[in-house]
UniProtKB/TrEMBL annotation:
SUPFAM superfamilies: Galactose-binding domain-like, Sialidases
Pfam families: BNR_2, F5_F8_type_C
Superkingdom as given in the UniProt entry: Bacteria
InterPro entries: FA58C, Galactose-bd-like_sf, Sialidase, Sialidase_sf
Protein name as it appears in the record: F5/8 type C domain-containing protein
Gene source species: Jiangella asiatica
CDD domains documented for this protein: Sialidase_non-viral
PROSITE patterns in the cross-refs: FA58C_3
Domain F5/8 type C: 430-578
C-alpha cells in the first residue's frame, strides 16, 4: 500500500549605515567562588540592547542559543517545589502529526536522605511550550523510560524498603497511555554483594538513566555503598522482564583518586559507546567535587578508569569543574549535551557526539545570595535539574529557584532573583553547521511537500511509527518509517516544493542496528541519479554526508539491510541546500552568518510553510533595522528571497552590496518594496527613486518571491519569477559585488515589520 499526501492549499541609508557599523563586544564575564564563568549574552529578541549591532553565529560552526526562562510552577509560600526533572517521549497530536510529549516532575519533600518522596507531575503535548494538564500529585517522581512496547516505566529515586542484605523493593510505576495514567509495577533489585546499612539508608539510590542494551534487556543506573566501600559507587542493574526484577550487572565507577562516584548520568554516544559522567565527593568531607567521566565499549559490561571531565567555555575563561546532577543526552543531530549544576545551572556540548570532552559551557540559570560567604554561594538554586530532547536541535532545560529545604533559608537575603520556591523551564537550541536545512515536516503540514513510500508499517501502541517518523526530528527507536515486510527493500520518496541545489543529507536508519541506504535524486521524476551509498552503517543519531551541489526536486531513499529477515527502518531524513532557510538557526538570535544586525532575529511564529524565518522589526525613530551578509568579491551575484511585509510597514529595502575603488559595503543596487506595493530602484547620483513596478504589485501581508541578478554594469529584477525591469548600479564605479543587506526604509519610520525566508545568494 502506498502512502501519499498531496495537499493544495532609503534617503538616510548612509547615516544609518554609519550608526550600525560599530562591533558588539561580547567578552563579558563574572567571577564565581574563585572560578571564572562565561556569561551568556541575552538573545537579541529579549535583550535590552536590541538596538546595538550584533553579529550572528558561525554558519559553519556549532552554536548554542538560549531562550528566556519561564516559570512552570510556583506554590503558595512555604510549600516546597524543587529538584525539577524532565523527560520527553514521541507521540502524535489530534491531527496525527508528530509531537514530543513532555513529562516534568518536581519534589515537595525536604532534601534529606530519609525523606519519603512527595512529587508532582505535569505534561505538555506541544514539546514543552505549554503545560495544560494540571498538577498530578499521585504519580511520583524519579526516572522514566519509554519501552519498545509503547509503555513508560518509572522508578523512584528512593526504594520503598530493604528486604534483606541483598535485595530492596523499588517504587516503580507503568503507564500504557504515554503518562496520562499510572499503575504500580511490583519491582525488586537484587545484588550479589551486601549493603552497608550503617552508611546508606534503604540500600540504593536509583539514579538516573534507564535505557536499552544491545541485546534488548534494560539497564538502569544506581549508586550504593557495599560493606567495605569507603564511599559511593555507581553501578548498572539489568532487567529482562520489563523492569519487574533487576539484578546487579556491572560496576560503572567506584572509589577513585580519593573520591566517591555517585549521581551519575549515562548516555549512548554517536558511535554506540556508553558515556558516564559522575558527581564526586570526599568521604567525610566535601560532597561536591570534580566532575569525572568514563566510558564503556562493550555495552556497559566493563568501564574505563574514571578521569576528570574536560570542559571549556566559548569565551576561553575557565569553566567550573564541580557539579551535581549530570545529565547527558544525544540529540538527533548527533551533538551530545551535558547539563549539571552547583553552583548555578550549566549546559555544555560535545559537537562530535562522543562525549570525550565538552565545550561552550554556559550558565542557564543563576540564583544565589549576593553575600560572598562560601557556603552561601551554593544556596539558592540547587543546581539539580535535567534536560530532555524536544527537537532535532532543541532541548528543554528545567531546574529550581531554591533547593528544597536548605536552598533559601530565612537568614539569606539579596538573592539574584529571589528566595521563593519555583520550578522553571527554558528552551536551548543546539545547532550544527549548515544553515540550509529544508523544513520537510513543516512543508508537509502545509501541503507543499509530499511523501510516497511503502514504509508505512503502523503500530497502535507506537503512534510515532509511520512515514512521518522519518521527518519528525526524533531519533528514538520507534520514531521511524518502517517497511513491515521482511525480504524487501524499503523506498521513501520526497517530492519537494521546488528544485533545490542540495549540498548535504542527514540519515539515521535503524537505531543501533547495521543498516544500509542508497539516495537518488531527480528533477523530473523519471530520470534518477544516485548521489549516496552509505554502505553498512550503525547509527544512533543522524549521520551527515556532504554532496556535490546537485539539483533535485525529488529525493528517493532506498533502505536495504544486510539481514534479509530484518525490517527496514528509516529513522530520520534531513536535506540541506544552498537556500538559507533559518531552520538550523537558534530562535531569538541573529541569523547565523549575518552581521551588524539591529532588530533582526530568527522567529518561529507568523511563519509560512517553513517554521523558522528571519524577523526584521524597526522599533526606533533614530535608526533602522538591518542585517548584512558579506561574501567574497564577485563580478556576478544573484540574490533570491521571499518577503512578507506586516505591521505598519513603510517600505522594505533590499540591497546588493558592493565595493568601489574608494569604499567597501556600498549599495551596488538599492531597491525597495514600498508600503503601496510598488517596487523601486534608487540612484545615489541623482538621489531619486524610480518605480520598476506600480503600486499594488507586491501588496503587504502576502509572501512575495524576489530575485536580483546583478553584474558590475546592471541588474535584472524579478518578482514571482517574472522580470519587472533592469537597472543600472545605484552607486557609480562598482568594482565587485560583496553580499546583501535587508533593512527598514529609514530612521523616521518605526514599527516596520518584515518576515524574510529562503534566502539564496550565488
Amino acid at each position: 500500500m502506498t502512502f501519499r499526501v498531496c495537499w493544495q492549499l532609503p534617503e538616510s541609508w548612509r547615516a544609518a549605515a554609519m550608526r550600525v557599523s560599530r562591533p558588539l563586544i561580547l567578552a563579558t564575564s563574572v567571577t564565581l567562588a574563585g572560578l571564572v564563568a562565561a556569561v551568556v549574552p541575552s538573545s537579541t529578541g529579549s535583550s535590552g540592547d536590541v538596538d546595538v549591532p550584533t553579529d550572528g553565529g558561525d554558519p559553519n560552526g556549532y552554536v548554542i542559543g538560549q531562550h528566556d526562562h519561564s516559570t512552570v510552577f510556583e506554590p503558595v509560600p512555604g510549600v516546597i517545589a524543587g529538584n525539577a526533572l524532565v523527560e520527553a517521549f514521541d507521540d502524535v497530536d489530534a491531527d496525527g502529526l508528530p509531537t514530543r510529549r513532555v513529562q516534568m516532575t518536581w519534589q515537595s519533600n525536604e532534601d534529606v536522605a530519609a525523606a519519603d518522596s512527595e512529587a508532582s507531575m505535569i505534561h505538555s503535548d506541544d514539546g514543552g511550550f505549554t503545560f495544560p494538564s494540571g498538577v498530578n500529585t499521585d504519580t511520583g517522581a524519579g526516572w522514566f523510560s519509554k519501552l519498545r512496547d509503547g509503555s513508560i516505566i518509572g522508578v523512584e529515586f528512593i526504594p520503598r524498603r530493604v528486604i534483606d542484605d541483598h535485595t530492596v523493593e523499588l517504587i516503580a510505576r507503568r503507564s500504557t497511555d504515554n503518562g496520562r495514567t499510572w499503575k504500580d509495577l511490583p519491582s525488586t533489585f537484587t545484588t550479589d554483594l551486601s549493603f552497608d546499612e550503617s552508611k546508606f539508608d534503604r540500600g540504593i539510590r536509583v539514579h538516573r538513566d534507564i535505557f536499552y542494551a544491545a541485546d534488548g534487556s534494560l539497564l538502569m543506573t544506581y549508586y550504593t555503598t557495599y560493606a567495605g566501600d569507603p564511599g559511593y559507587r555507581t553501578e548498572l542493574a539489568r532487567s529482562t522482564d520489563g523492569g519487574r526484577t533487576w539484578h546487579r550487572y556491572a560496576t560503572v565507577a567506584t572509589f577513585t583518586d580519593g573520591v566517591w562516584m555517585g549521581e551519575s548520568g549515562i548516555a549512548r554516544a554517536a558511535n554506540g559507546e556508553l558515556v558516564a559522567v559522575h558527581r564526586t565527593g570526599t568521604p567525610g568531607g566535601a560532597n561536591v567535587g570534580l566532575i569525572y567521566t568514563n566510558r564503556s565499549s562493550d555495552d556497559g559490561r566493563t568501564w574505563s578508569r574514571p578521569q576528570p571531565l574536560q570542559i571549556t567555555t566559548a569565551s576561553g575563561e575557565p569553566a567550573p569543574t564541580t557539579g551535581v546532577m549530570p545529565v547527558l543526552r544525544l540529540l538527533p543531530n548527533g551533538i551530545m549535551t551535558l547539563t549539571f549544576g552547583r553552583p548555578d545551572n550549566w549546559i555544555a556540548i560535545s559537537p562530535d557526539g562522543l562525549g570525550h570532552s565538552f565545550e561552550q559551557a554556559q550558565t542557564t540559570y543563576v540564583n544565589h545570595p549576593r553575600v560572598n560567604a562560601s557556603f552561601q554561594r551554593f544556596h539558592g538554586s540547587s543546581g539539580n535539574g535535567a534536560h530532555a530532547v524536544v527537537g532535532a536541535n532543541r532541548v528543554l532545560v528545567v531546574g529550581d529557584n531554591c533547593a528544597p529545604s536548605w536552598g533559601c533559608p530565612e537568614t539569606d537575603a539579596g538573592f539574584t532573583i529571589d528566595g521563593e520556591y519555583r520550578v522553571w523551564k527554558k528552551f536551548v537550541d543546539v545547532v550544527a553547521p549548515n544553515v540550509g536545512k529544508i523544513d520537510l515536516l513543516g512543508k508537509y503540514e502545509a501541503g507543499t511537500v509530499t511523501i510516497d513510500t511503502d514504509m508505512n508499517h503502523a503500530d497502535a501502541r507506537l503512534p510515532e511509527t509511520g512515514p512521518l517518523g522519518a521527518i519528525d526530528g526524533s531519533a528514538d527507536w520507534a520514531s521511524a518509517a518502517v517497511q513491515g515486510r521482511p525480504r524487501g527493500d524499503g523506498t521513501y520518496t520526497v517530492t519537494l516544493d521546488r528544485t533545490y541545489t542540495l549540498n548535504q543529507i542527514g540519515l539515521h536508519l535503524q537505531y543501533g542496528a547495521p543498516s544500509a541506504a542508497r539516495v537518488e535524486v531527480s528533477t523530473d521524476g523519471e530520470t534518477w541519479t544516485e548521489v549516496l551509498d552509505t554502505g553498512t552503517v550503525t547509527t544512533y543519531a543522524l549521520r551527515y554526508f556532504e554532496l556535490p551541489d546537485v539539483e533535485a526536486s525529488q529525493v528517493r531513499v532506498t533502505v536495504a539491510d544486510t539481514d534479509p529477515q530484518a525490517l527496514e527502518f528509516l529513522g530520520e531524513l534531513e536535506l540541506y541546500s544552498t537556500v538559507d532557510s533559518f531552520e538550523n538557526d537558534p530562535v531569538g538570535q541573529v541569523p547565523r552568518g549575518y552581521t551588524s544586525a539591529i532588530g533582526a532575529t530568527v522567529t518561529d511564529f507568523d511563519v509560512d510553510d517553513s517554521r523558522h524565518v528571519m524577523r526584521l522589526t524597526d522599533a526606533w525613530i533614530d535608526k533602522i533595522a538591518s542585517a548584512r551578509w558579506s561574501s567574497d568579491p564577485a563580478d556576478e551575484q544573484s540574490l533570491a528571497f521571499r518577503v512578507n511585509s506586516i505591521g505598519y510597514a513603510r517600505s522594505f529595502a533590499f540591497t546588493v552590496l558592493g565595493s568601489t575603488a574608494d569604499a567597501e559595503d556600498v549599495p551596488a543596487y538599492h531597491l525597495n518594496v514600498g508600503s503601496d506595493g510598488s517596487i523601486g530602484w534608487y540612484s545615489y547620483e541623482t538621489q531619486i527613486w524610480t518605480k520598476l513596478a506600480p503600486a499594488g504589485t507586491a501588496p503587504q501581508r502576502v509572501w512575495h518571491e524576489l530575485r536580483v541578478d546583478a553584474t558590475l554594469d546592471g541588474a535584472e529584477v524579478f518578482l514571482g519569477g517574472e522580470s519587472i525591469g533592469t537597472v543600472e548600479p545605484s552607486t557609480l564605479g562598482i568594482t565587485a559585488l560583496t553580499g546583501h543587506r535587508f533593512a527598514s526604509s529609514g530612521t523616521s519610520s518605526h514599527y516596520d515589520h518584515f518576515l524574510i525566508d529562503d534566502v539564496e545568494q550565488s
